[in-house]
């Protein structure tokens, strides 16, 4: 196993030219962020106090940057707030310059930026190291949104979006209703078990492809059927969305609708008669996903989002 210095050299692709500390590591202990001295060994100013070197992190923020992230962040963030962050960054860095130093000094704020935004990598590095950086917080939100595991409940397919990946699984709501859940009114227990297993087996394919799916915490459920679930659970026509659905509640509501006849199901407050079948298939899907991924909850997202 390489030493820290050897690994840093490998990640940089060169010998470090100044003093540094590893201040952020990933779950395996690999370096992610370096904190640099304000001057290199030869006295050259080093404006970038925090340097992102984790390969996965570089790829993630690099993709965001290549898709116009710098311009979007500048448009969405208050420039005075960003400038204040630059000033804090510069003050921390410059406080470490020896009092007797009379040579060139580091310039600018985050990553040497004098005004506005230049490098999302430098902002995220500072944020990951605990810095009070509004740009870093913006990056974190953007990455979380685009990398979120989203389940879209469609009639034709069960669509899963996760980062740059998409899966259209052949277990849409219509499939569950015609193949399994139309067997009896209410459906027979064996049919319910088969429907749950059908969804779980297809989600299993994603887990085999991306084992880290079993470590997911946040999952969104979208599509019109997500609103039908919220209506049923809350008991009103227009529930506040997004809303959280915990696993125990999902299991309880699923058991309720799965053991009711269609006629009885139609009397549930907030549930339109047109959704009495859809909501059963939707809940079956959500419960199967919750169980297979070991989730505590999902977030129901309104309407056609996703």
TrEMBL record:
Source taxon at top rank: Bacteria
Annotated Pfam families: DUF501
Protein name: DUF501 domain-containing protein
Organism: Ilumatobacter fluminis
Lineage, broadest ranks: Bacteria, Bacillati, Actinomycetota, Acidimicrobiia, Acidimicrobiales
């Amino acid at each position: 196993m390489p030493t820290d210095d050897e690994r840093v050299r490998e990640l940089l692709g060169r010998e470090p030219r100044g003093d540094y500390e590893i201040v952020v590591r990933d779950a395996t202990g690999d370096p992610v962020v370096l904190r640099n001295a304000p001057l290199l060994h030869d006295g050259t100013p080093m404006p970038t106090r925090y340097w992102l070197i984790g390969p996965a992190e570089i790829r993630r923020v690099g993709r965001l940057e290549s898709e116009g992230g710098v311009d979007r962040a500048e448009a969405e963030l208050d420039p005075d707030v960003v400038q204040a962050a630059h000033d804090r960054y510069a003050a921390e860095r410059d406080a470490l310059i020896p009092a007797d130093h009379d040579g060139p000094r580091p310039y600018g704020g985050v990553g040497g930026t004098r005004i506005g935004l230049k490098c999302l990598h430098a902002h995220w590095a500072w944020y990951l190291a605990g810095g009070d950086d509004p740009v870093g917080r913006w990056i974190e939100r953007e990455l979380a949104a685009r990398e979120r595991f989203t389940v879209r409940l469609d009639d034709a397919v069960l669509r899963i979006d996760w980062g740059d990946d998409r899966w259209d699984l052949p277990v849409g709501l219509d499939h569950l209703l015609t193949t399994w859940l139309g067997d009896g009114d209410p459906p027979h227990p064996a049919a319910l078990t088969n429907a749950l297993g059908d969804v779980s087996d297809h989600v299993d394919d994603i887990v085999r492809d991306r084992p880290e799916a079993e470590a997911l915490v946040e999952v969104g459920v979208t599509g019109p059927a997500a609103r039908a679930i919220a209506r049923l659970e809350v008991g009103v026509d227009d529930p506040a969305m997004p809303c959280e659905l915990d696993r125990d509640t999902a299991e309880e509501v699923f058991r309720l609708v799965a053991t009711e006849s269609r006629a009885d199901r139609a009397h549930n407050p907030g549930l339109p008669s047109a959704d009495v079948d859809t909501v059963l298939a939707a809940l079956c899907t959500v419960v199967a996903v919750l169980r297979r991924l070991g989730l505590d909850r999902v977030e129901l997202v309104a309407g056609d989002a996703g």
